Amino acid sequence: NAGVTQTPKFQVLKTGQSMTLQCAQDMNHNSMYWYRQDPGMGLRLIYYSASEGTTDKGEVPNGYNVSRLNKREFSLRLESAAPSQTSVYFCASCRRADQPQHFGDGTRLSIL
Amino acid sequence: RKEVEQDPGPFNVPEGATVAFNCTYSNSASQSFFWYRQDCRKEPKLLMSVYSSGNEDGRFTAQLNRASQYISLLIRDSKLSDSATYLCVVKTSYDKVIFGPGTSLSVIP
Predict the structure, then answer these.
(1) Residue B30 has what pLDDT?
(2) pLDDT level of residue B95 (50, 70, 90 thresholds)
(3) What DSSP line would sit under A18-40, residue for residue?
């Protein structure tokens, strides 16, 4: 009964390094999302994928790329990490737009 | 103006109190509405969906006013375990999701 699984849970990077955050869901959900959460800012949508094969920008897409590899997996890539990308990243999925999202445990990313 | 706004908080209330959270949204095309709670350093968890007719789940009551673009959450008989941040969530018809900044609640013995 895994739900939404994110890896890794913690990561420290140096400025300029690249990294891919992985997300997988086993609930056969159509839509998947990546958020970042910063103190005092709430959750902000980076990218989302309404269905397999489609991706769209959210509120804060700059500096990130995504891949909807298949229906289960939605990865988030930082090509050249910057200290401003230090945050907690959450992946989420849902079956349809009118249904609530299920969240992963989060990835705590620090960029030095 | 932010797309989803919430009471800034924090709310500090005694056990047993009734507390209400307000949320407003700017996109009239918004279709679905939810309240999530988030405990410190944990992932958000669904508290309840919000339906046009209003809905209740135990001590929690959610209301939606589409004309005023306003959502509310009422918690009756607050428990210590209700201490958390409450997030208002709005989904548009094209599956875009916006979270409010959250309102922090501390229930005090």
Answers:
(1) 86
(2) low
(3) -EEEEEEESS--SEEEEEEEETT
